[in-house]
Amino acid sequence: MKVDIRIPEEVELPEGMPTMELPPPLEAEFSIKQPRNVRFATLSGVPEILYINNETSNYSELRQARKYALKPALESLDTQTGMRADLGALLPGADLPILFLLPPETPGSPWGAEDVTFVASDPAGDVPCDHLLLPGPMGDTELWISREGDPWVMRMLLHPPGEGEMEIPDAADDDMAPGFLPILDVTFRDWEGNPDLTESFEIEPRNDFQKVDDPVSAFFEAGPFPGGPPESPAGDSRPAPEVSLRTVDGKAIDLASLRGKVVVLDFWATWCGPCRKALPEAAKVARDLAPKGLVFYAVNLQESPQKIQAFLGKQGIDVPVALDERGAVANAFGVTSIPHTVVIDKEGRIHNEHVGWAPGATAQMRREVEALLAK
Fold it and tell me: Residue 8: its pLDDT value, please?
């Protein structure tokens, strides 16, 4: 089957997400075979990814970065879903077709919803469909199921939870909330039931690509997540925008007044799953390097001080927080997905930007900051 993944232009983004320059739709081809075989390959759009899990091996190919990872196979389909798995971490939403083959009792399966509402008889493209609404704790899901022939899912629209609707999960569940995309519109076409997939799951590592251990770390080290601002070429860093913020306790911050210091701005929100992984690590960097002169602010996107303080208290995170109350600062820096960390040197120029979270990403940022502090 083929899938098209996009962020709808007509939807109003939830509070906490800055105005975006939306990336183009991504088209991909997907094959699945029980009990564990999966193949996902992008056909157009970015990032360019090939992912295969077969009976013996798990392969991720990052074509733009010219890198690949080869690991032991994952044993089941459900272990290949969510932000903990490589496919969902590399491209949020890419793992959605797998959910359709999971039993109703499996977490994440749309067939486990207890309260399903029939919305209308609406077509998906030119295919007559039944339009269903499935509410869930992480946001609502709309499905369009074909009415003629086999009941294939033709469209899936994922909504984020509304303000105050999502209970902040414990640390063990941090990856469940998407942090990159606030809403996804996924369309499906060219479904085939029980085709010959003999060759679909064969793995042939590229001998002209570099082998890496962790494809997710390699992906983020290669550059910002698609849709984020381009990194400045070495030796040609751009000046940081002259913006003003205020801290969660009301203190005014003028970024231009911090010239002569190394500054890190870490854009985040309480609803962002990857942010909840990244923020404790970033807070430790802030504490460790503050005596050496680092100025660090976790810049929260458009949430109330009360909500922020409740979250930090519950998670036991002690970090300086600044408020981007209207999203203007995020827009000035070109932030389109979070977490998004900006490292600014002593001359007030952007040294580097890190978008997303992966194991080792914070350690890399720390090394950059230590080098700048030593200058």
Answer: 62
